[in-house]
Write a structure and sequence with these properties.
The complex is a heterodimer of chains A (about 350) and B (about 400). Chain A has 9 helices and 17 strands. Chain A is of the alpha+beta class and about 350 residues long. Chain A has 3 domains: about 110 residues, Elongation Factor Tu (Ef-tu), domain 3; about 90 residues, 2-Layer Sandwich (Gyrase A, domain 2); about 90 residues, Aminomethyltransferase beta-barrel domains (Alpha-Beta Plaits, 2-Layer Sandwich), CATH 3.30.70.1400. In chain A, helix 1 crosses helix 6 and helix 4 crosses helix 5. Chain A is flat and about 65 Å long. Chain B is built from 11 helices and 12 strands. A 4-stranded antiparallel beta sheet of chain B has the order 3-4-6-5, covered by helices on one side. Chain B has a 4-stranded antiparallel beta sheet with strand order 9-10-12-11. A two-stranded antiparallel ribbon of chain B has the order 1-2. In chain B, helix 1 runs parallel beside helix 6, helix 2 crosses helix 6 and helix 4 crosses helix 5. Chain B has about 400 residues and is of the alpha+beta class. The termini of chain B are far apart. The chains are: A alpha+beta (about 350), B alpha+beta (about 400). At the A-B interface, loops of A face strand 3 of B.
Chain lengths: ~350, ~400
C-alpha cells in the first residue's frame, strides 16, 4: 500500500493525543522568550501589537497577533505580564521579532533581552492536569485562573506556573523552570502523570498539530501572509489605539477580507489519499469547485481528529466561495467544508 | 483562450548579488541571462565538474563499499562538526522544544530548495520524516554521493540534537535516489524504537524504509521543475512547515557544489588515510577533469550552440575569448569577483578571486576548474590553445588563455 494515512492508523499518535483528551499528557514545550522591561514597556508593546496590552494586569497573559505595515500577521504570541514593568513575549520567531522590536523601539525607554536559555517549559494538559498540578505544587493551583501566572515551588524548585495551553483543554498548565531543575521536575511529573493513566506526549505532530487543530487553533505557518480578518483573529483588536498595521487593517475592515480560513474534513471512503498541506511547507494542494476551473483556495492544514475519527484541516479560500456543507474534491479525494472546531 | 499570465521571474531575484546595472549575468557581448537562468547554469556546470571529480575518486578507491564508506564517514563527521560549531537553528525554524534529530529534516528541506533540488516535504514528525525531490542536478555524479549527502544530513541532525534536551534519534535513509535511476530522490528518517530495523553501517543508509507503506509518491503530472523561490504558486518564496522564509534575492551566494562539499573533501580524506598520495590524487583529478572538459565540446554542434548562447558575433573567430565568455558567465553566476586584464584575439587574462571560487571553503576547487577549462579550450577553440595559471597575486588565481606549445602536454 502507498499513501497510507500517517495519522489514522498510527496508534502511537492516537494514544498520546487521547491521553490529553481523556486523562492528562505532558510535554516539553519550551518557546523562545523575549523579556521586555522599562517604564515604557507597556506603551511600546501596546503599539507593537493590535490587541489591548495596556489593560493587561500583572500576572495575566494575552494572546495577540503581530502585524507588519500591510496588516499581515508576522507572528502570533502570548504576552505575559510578569510585573509592573516586566513582560515576557512567548514566540517561536525571536530573531525576527527582536529585529522588528529594535526597528520600532527608538522612542521608547525599554530594554529587551532573549531569556530563552534561562527557562524550560513543560506543558501539562488535559482534564486531570489540575489534579496533577495540585499534587506536585506546594500550595496547589486551585485559585489560578485561565491565562494567569504565578511563582510556585515544585519538588523544592522555584518555578513559574502559567495556566494556559495550545490544546483547547479547559485545564492546562505550563511549568517554567530553570533548565538545571528540568530533570527533577520531569521525573516528578512523569510519575504523577503515568500514575493517573496519562502519558508523556512525545510526537511533534500531536502537540503542535493534531491537538491544536482539533480546537481550531493555528500554528504560525497557517497564518503566514494572512491578515486577522481572514483567519478570524480580528475580535480582540483594540481599534481605539495606534498600532502597527492599523491603517491597512482599517481598509480591510472597510472593504472586507478577500480570503477566509475554513475547516474541512475528508469524507472519501479511501482515507489513504494524497493531499499536500502547507504544514509541511510549500504552497498546499489547490482547491477547485467541481466543474469549475477557477482555483478557490489552498489546503493549509490536514491532520486527524482522534476525537471525531476524521481527517480534518483548514483551507485558505477566496471569501464566500466555500460554505459549510459544500462537497469538493481535492486531488481526487472527496471532502466537505466544516466549522474549524472539532471539539464542540 | 484565457487571460492567464504564466509564471515570471521575481523582480527582486538577484538583489543580493550586487549586480550594478541589471539583476542579470552578462556575457562579454552583452547577452543577458536572468538570475534564475544563471543560477541553473552554474548549478549544471558545477554538477558536470563534480561528476568528473567523482570518477577521480573512483579511481583512487576502486572498491565501492570502501569508497562509499569512507565518503559517508567523512561527510558525517565534517557536517556534525559544522552543525555543532555553527548552530543556526533560527534560520531553519528549529524551535527550542524540538528535541532529538527530527529537526534535521528542516535543514535538508531548506538546503535542497536553495540548491534548486525542488520537491516537497511529505512528513515531518518526531518519529518519521520524509522528503521527496523531483529534480537534483547532482544526479549525474554517483550513487556514493547520494549516500554521503544522506549522512551529512544525519550529521547535521545529530548536531542539532545536542543543543536540546535529550530526544528521539532518527535514522536518515535514502530510499530512492535519482542518482540511482529512480524518478525521485526520497529520504525517509525513522526512529528505530517505533520502526525497528537491524543496525547498519553509515554507507548502508539506503532503503527500503520500514514505513514503506507511508510513502507519499508524487506522480509525474504533479512533479515540479523549479524551487519554491521561483514558483508563482509559492509567492516566489521558499517556506517550510515552521514558517522559515527565503526568496531568491541572494541565493547565488548560497550555492554549494557536490565537488566542494563532498567529492574533493573525500579525495583529501583518501589522501589522509593513505589510499594514495597528494601528488597522485592531483594527477588523477587533472587527467579526469581535462578529459571531461574536452568532451564538453567534442561535437561541432556544441561549439555552435555555445557561440549562440554567449551571443558571440561572427567577427569573433576561433580564439580564447570563447572560453573567456563562458568563464565570465560562470564566475558572475557564482558571485565570484574577477578582473579582466586582457581580452583580445591573442590572449585573455583574468585575475579571479581565489576565495570566491573556493566554494564552501574548498581550497582545491579553483584548480579543479582550471583543469576543466584546459580541457574545454582544446575542443571549444582548438588544440593550439591552452589555459594556465601565471603570476597569481596572493589570494588570486590569474589565468591566461592563449596559444601554447608544450611537447609534453
Amino acid at each position: 500500500m502507498m499513501n497510507k494515512n500517517i495519522f489514522k492508523y498510527d496508534e502511537w499518535k492516537r494514544s498520546e493525543h487521547m491521553a490529553v483528551r481523556q486523562k492528562v499528557g505532558y510535554y516539553l514545550f519550551t518557546h523562545q522568550l523575549m523579556e521586555v522591561t522599562g517604564p515604557d514597556a507597556c506603551r511600546f508593546l501596546d503599539y507593537m501589537f493590535p490587541n489591548n496590552i495596556s489593560s493587561l494586569k500583572p500576572n495575566r497573559d494575552r494572546y495577540t497577533t503581530m502585524l507588519n505595515d500591510q496588516g499581515e500577521i508576522i507572528d502570533d504570541v502570548v504576552i505575559m505580564r510578569m510585573d509592573e514593568e516586566k513582560y515576557w513575549v512567548s514566540t517561536l520567531y525571536l530573531e525576527k521579532t527582536d529585529d522588528w522590536f529594535y526597528e520600532h523601539s527608538e522612542d521608547y525607554d525599554i530594554d529587551t533581552s532573549d531569556i530563552t536559555d534561562e527557562w524550560d517549559m513543560f506543558s501539562v494538559q488535559g482534564p486531570e492536569s489540575k489534579e496533577i498540578m495540585n499534587r506536585i505544587t506546594e500550595g496547589g493551583v486551585e485559585e489560578l485562573r485561565f491565562f494567569a501566572n504565578r511563582t510556585a515551588v515544585i519538588g523544592g524548585h522555584d518555578v513559574i506556573i502559567n495556566r494556559g495551553g495550545f490544546t483547547g483543554e479547559k485545564f492546562g498548565y505550563e511549568i517554567y523552570c530553570n533548565p538545571d531543575d528540568s530533570d527533577d521536575i520531569q521525573a516528578l511529573l512523569d510519575a504523577e502523570v503515568k500514575a493517573a493513566g496519562g502519558k508523556e506526549v512525545t510526537e511533534f505532530q500531536v502537540f503542535a498539530w493534531t491537538l491544536p487543530t482539533e480546537a481550531g487553533f493555528y500554528y504560525m505557518r497557517d497564518l503566514g501572509h494572512t491578515n486577522p480578518f481572514e483567519v478570524g483573529l480580528e475580535k480582540n483588536i483594540n481599534w481605539d489605539k495606534e498600532f502597527i498595521g492599523k491603517e491597512a487593517l482599517l481598509k480591510i475592515r472597510e472593504n472586507g477580507p478577500e480570503r477566509e480560513m475554513v475547516g474541512f474534513e475528508v469524507c472519501d471512503e479511501n482515507e489513504d489519499f494524497y493531499i499536500r498541506a502547507k504544514q509541511y511547507g510549500g504552497p498546499g494542494e489547490p482547491v477547485f469547485i467541481e466543474g469549475e476551473e477557477e482555483e478557490v483556495g489552498r489546503v493549509s492544514k490536514l491532520v486527524y481528529s482522534y476525537v471525531k475519527n476524521v481527517n480534518n484541516g483548514y483551507i485558505l479560500a477566496k471569501k464566500g466561495k466555500l460554505k459549510i456543507g459544500d462537497h469538493i474534491r481535492i486531488h481526487g479525494t472527496e471532502c466537505v467544508i466544516t466549522e474549524k472546531n472539532w471539539l464542540s | 483562450m484565457t487571460k492567464k499570465i504564466d509564471e515570471r521571474i521575481p523582480s527582486n531575484s538577484g538583489d543580493g548579488a550586487a549586480f550594478t546595472k541589471y539583476n542579470a549575468v552578462q556575457s562579454p557581448w552583452n547577452r543577458l541571462y536572468s538570475y534564475q537562468e544563471a543560477l541553473h547554469y552554474a548549478s549544471r556546470f558545477e554538477a558536470v565538474l563534480s561528476a568528473a571529480v567523482a570518477q577521480a575518486y573512483r579511481i583512487i578507491i576502486p572498491d565501492y563499499e570502501t569508497r562509499a564508506s569512507e565518503m559517508c564517514k567523512e561527510a558525517y563527521q565534517r557536517l556534525f562538526y559544522t552543525g555543532t560549531a555553527y548552530p543556526a537553528d533560527d534560520s531553519f525554524g528549529i524551535h527550542p522544544f524540538m528535541c532529538g534529530s527530527y529537526p534535521g529534516a528542516l535543514i535538508g528541506d531548506k538546503g535542497d530548495d536553495a540548491l534548486l533540488m525542488c520537491g516537497r516535504c511529505q512528513d515531518f514528525g518526531t518519529y518519521r520524516c520524509e522528503k521527496e525531490l523531483d529534480v537534483c542536478d547532482w544526479d549525474i555524479c554517483c550513487s556514493e554521493l547520494c549516500r554521503a549527502t544522506t549522512m551529512s544530513l544525519q550529521g547535521q541532525a545529530d548536531a542539532t540534537a545536542t543543543r536540546h534536551r535529550k530526544g528521539k534519534k532518527l535514522d536518515y535513509m535514502m530510499v530512492e535516489a535519482k542518482g540511482c535511476g529512480d524518478r525521485h530522490c526520497r529520504i525517509v528518517a525513522e526512529n528505530r524504537e517505533k520502526y525497528p530495523a537491524p543496525d547498519h553501517e553509515l554507507w548502508q543508509s539506503f532503503g527500503p524504509a520500514v514505513s514503506q507503506d507511508y510513502i507519499k509518491y508524487t506522480e509525474e503530472e504533479d512533479t515540479v521543475e523549479e524551487s519554491m523561490m521561483f514558483r508563482e504558486e509559492c509567492n516566489y518564496r521558499f517556506v517550510n512547515g515552521t514558517n522559515t522564509e527565503t526568496d531568491s534575492s541572494n541565493q547565488m551566494i548560497n550555492l554549494s557544489t557536490a565537488a566542494s562539499l563532498y567529492l574533493l573533501p573525500a579525495i583529501d580524506n583518501a589522501v589522509r588515510l593513505g589510499y594514495t598520495d597528494a601528488k597522485n590524487a592531483d594527477w588523477i583529478k587533472k587527467c579526469v577533469l581535462e578529459a571531461a572538459g574536452k568532451a564538453m565540446f567534442g561535437e561541432r554542434y556544441a561549439i555552435k550552440a555555445c557561440r549562440d548562447y554567449l551571443g558571440v558575433p561572427n567577427s569573433v573567430g576561433e580564439d580564447g575569448r570563447l572560453l573567456g565568455g563562458l568563464i565570465e558567465i560562470l564566475l558572475q553566476s557564482l558571485v565570484c569577483s574577477y578582473e579582466i586584464e586582457a581580452f583580445n584575439k591573442d590572449e585573455v587574462i583574468y585575475v579571479i578571486d581565489r576565495g570566491g571560487l573556493a566554494i564552501t571553503g574548498c581550497q582545491s576547487l579553483p584548480e579543479a576548474h582550471l583543469y576543466m577549462w584546459q580541457g574545454m579550450v582544446k575542443t571549444l577553440v582548438n588544440a593550439q590553445w591552452s589555459v594556465w595559471e601565471e603570476d597569481s597575486p596572493k589570494g588570486k588565481l590569474r589565468i591566461k588563455i592563449a596559444k601554447k606549445i608544450d611537447k609534453f602536454m
